[in-house]
Amino acid sequence: MSEAIITTKGLTREYVRDQFKVMALHNASLDVTKGEFVALMGPSGSGKSTLLYLIAAMDRPTGGEIRVLGQDLRALSGNAIASWRNAHVGFVFQSFNLIPVLTALENVELPLKLTSLKKKERLEHAETALKLVGLGDRLHHFPKQLSGGQEQRVAIARALVTDPDIILADEPTGNLDANSANEVLSLLHRLNQEYGKTIVMVTHDPHAARFATKIRFLDKGELLSEGTKPADWMSPS
Amino acid sequence: MGRYASLVWKNAIRNRRRTLLTITSLGFSLCLLGLMMAIYYALYLSDTPPAQALRLATRNKVSITLPMPGYYLQRIEKTPGVREAMPWQWFQGVYKDERDPNNFFARFGVDAKKLFLIQSEIRLPEEQKQAFIADRRGCIIGKKVSEKHGLRVGDRLTIKGDIYPMDLELNIHGVYDSTMGSDTLFFHWDYVKENRSLPKEYTDVYSSISILVETPESVPTVIAAIDDQFRSSSVQTRTETERAFALGFLNMMGNIKAILLSVCAAVTFTILLVSANTMAMSVRERVREVGILKTLGFKPGAILGIVLCESMLIAALGAVVGYGLATVLCGMIRQGPAFSSEIANLSIQPFVMVAMLLSALAIALLSAFVPAWTASRVPILDALRHSD
């Protein structure tokens, strides 16, 4: 059996909003092994994005344990978390989140600026990543000159340019048409199958979830046990 | 921070119109600041030219507008350490039409033979110099006066007396140039002094006496010696270096030092507000991008540095524009009437240029620090949700 590279035990995230406590995630225990492609599904407000942000160390849990690649994320300071994230995690957003004033190549180069690579090497790596996602001919295009699908592929290139162990995707096809969504999902599938990347993807879309090797459901902040769906969940067509 | 240079540059020019307007407004403000600093530097901090360092001026201790008895000149000439002394007599008068301020230029009555010894910076052909010395009704005019009023050697010039009840009918024998300014007319004070129709209170008094000392080291001793010998007289004197004398003359218009410093402070405060407003707007528009950078692994320190560098880049460009404008303005001031030799040679010295740049950078740091610090500390998720 493969080693779990993401382990959460009783993971909890509670917010205080307008003096009211909101339990975004409660007692979530999850194991993701190396090379898995896990889809986190569930209705809006179920806590799937919260779980993803906690795995990415973009947020801090209020309870429970979380170890990613053997690292206890709660033990890392703010600066150490930033370095850790840069080295081990690639993140893909629903709304692409490219920097509009930078070209595709410069956007993909950004995470490499935090490494010791020289400019020439950084640009070579960024170009390779863009070619990998099929955008070798769009290196010097600005985000506004690209289609939504192309923007998301640039974002995926940016996520994988540092060769991270884990790629986390938050509704990566949420803003795309069906064709572009398929391209992006195929790309993620390829990264998982051919390059062995561990992927955790949050999605609403049952079609997108089919590309994953494992699906876990969340409901009202609870991570349901494997094979269980929310009672009112519509089955994939 | 060098590897973020392209990001800093692209952020700085992302809103080109706003950046251009900010640079322009900073440029104009820094131009004014640079100009004030240049004047302050010229008047109070610059080195005295070697020839000027040997010159003193004596006047009535109470006020430059009050006269000293004529015999003071002979007493001063005999003071140990004094090489030469001559009248330096303000005539004023009116050229053409007093209602037109453009007709104003300084007119001083001097001892023509000693003028070129004491004011050794005055340059003109030897034959013009000799012609001036030889003619009691002769005068020499500065190059600026010649160019501005179209006056040439051989022309006759009438200066109508206003303080003095006589007119000067002068023959122009020379046009001089000088590092101390060239916007003055010099004539023989003897021309006035020998006018028998004038009462003694006009001809036998001086408002100031220009003195050349033997060595720069003897300046304090000579100053003390001159003033001491008239300490018990009814008219006491005040002797000071030529520069201090000129500054005293300028201070008749007001406390120049305080005016300059007040304008500098006001300009600096204005630039601070302009810059702070721009940076606050610029950072506020990019909170989401700060969240993206943090997601990619950028640390708060790097984000703080990027925003501060962006602000400093804009300020430095403003300083370059300001330097250019201030240089042009200095040139225009040099062409105008000079109240002192320092203003006649006004320029943006390297010291002032560095001070302008440092002021701009300090303002940039101050104005951008709060928005940059706030942006660097905002939690990732809050930043990413911004404007969603």
Describe the structure in brief.
The complex is a heterodimer of chains A (237) and B (388). Chain A has 237 residues and is of the alpha/beta class.
Task: Give an overview of the whole structure.
The complex is a heterodimer of chains A (237) and B (388). Chain A has helices at 48-55, 78-88, 104-109, 119-132, 148-160, 178-195, 206-209; strands spanning 4-17, 20-33, 37-41, 63-68, 71-72, 89-92, 166-170, 198-203, 214-219, 222-223. In chain A, a hairpin with a 2-residue loop joins strand 4 and strand 5 (71-72). Chain A is globular and about 45 Å long. Chain A has 237 residues and is α/β, with parallel strands linked by helices. In chain A, the strands form 2 sheets. Chain A has a 6-stranded mixed β-sheet. In chain A, strands 2-1-4-5 form a 4-stranded antiparallel β-sheet, covered by helices on one side. Chain B has 17 helices and 13 strands. The two termini of chain B are 30 Å apart. The model of chain B has no long low-confidence stretch (mean pLDDT 89). In chain B, the strands form 3 sheets. A 7-stranded mixed β-sheet of chain B has the order 4-6-10-7-9-8-5. In chain B, strands 3-12-1-13 form a 4-stranded antiparallel β-sheet, sandwiched between helices. Helices cover 55% and strands 15% of the residues of chain B.
